[in-house]
Known about the structure:
This protein has 415 residues and is mainly beta. It is 5% helix and 45% strand. The strands form six sheets. The chain has an eight-stranded mixed β-sheet.
Amino acid sequence: xxxxxxxxxxxxxxxxxxxxxxxxxxxxxxxxxxxxxxxxxxxxxxxxxxxxxxxxxxxxxxxxxxxxxxxxxxxxxxxxxxxxxxxxxxxxxxxxxxxxxxxxxxxxxxxxxxxxxxxxxxxxxxxxxxxxxxxxxxxxxxxxxxxxxxxxxxxxxxxxxxxxxxxxxxxxxxxxxxxxxxxxxxxxxxxxxxxxxxxxxxxxxxxxxxxxxxxxxxxxxxxxxxxxxxxxxxxxxxxxxxxxxxxxxxxxxxxxxxxxxxxxxxxxxxxxxxxxxxxxxxxxxxxxxxxxxxxxxxxxxxxxxxxxxxxxxxxxxxxxxxxxxxxxxxxxxxxxxxxxxxxxxxxxxxxxxxxxxxxxxxxxxxxxxxxxxxxxxxxxxxxxxxxxxxxxxxxxxxxxxxxxxxxxxxxxxxx
Length: 415
């Protein structure tokens, strides 16, 4: 069964295909989606955590579905499979973060493994990390996977003693134009201790990049952002002079998102900026960001653009950004897509286009340059965002449509 985007100008929310759905009797729930598009094989890979309940402490194993993009724009999805090698004994597997190395055609899937009985809150209170940085890889587009590697010692080393806990992503990583592979991550840094325990109210998360310059053979860790910044994703921005910047967009508990730029491909980020246009619900929520080539056209300053809230800033980069996140300030509802045509400016975000009305949670974006189309996986549902993980495709025109037409109720496809 396939999936196509809504027609430009139709005013509809895009078609939604259900990939994972909560099982009412058993309580099995699928959360924390990640998505990657492999252009050479026209394949989507959608990942999620399989849990025995919606709670973080009940995460069990990662699952995956593969989708083949057809000539007519539909996507043929495989059945769900558990990634049996992506685990460590006695641990729960969490936070899928895929990245593709184009030169060797190797797909890396990063994740963390945490002792089954240990919660994140317990680690933050005690200051004793129980998470491990792990990775599997595939050379056949996700058909088979290697055994899990524990990279904690080689990548983090003694710095782990300064952290209460950490995680990657969740969501996709990036390969930059210089070949560097980027895995977004965050760590709860412990600045002060008393009798080996963290001093209360001093332990906060900080986003950072994990990177490789040799095709994924070895990995290193960049410096942390100097501001509260939790779950994050990153995107490369190329300006009109060909200079590269790594952009970080991170969850924050202050009601708006945290942004930062790196001019050295993720080793160090400049002073973070709070993006007032990108609102957070109470306690925040994960969001997804992706860069894509700026189109040759640019919307005129007309009534339609104003009605859509289109930014009037002149484009200053070869790259535009899309950001996806719940738009409601009070709860995780109404998934929106924000466009930024001037991503090096601190206020370049347009007003969001709602692509899923109602409960909406975590998400991940992918870009298909062949069809100039975007796809995403989102947590959503009728009563709770924990009910389903859905796949949606849409175009830039869909994002830039005005909200004048009444949006029709989204069609649901379960496959």
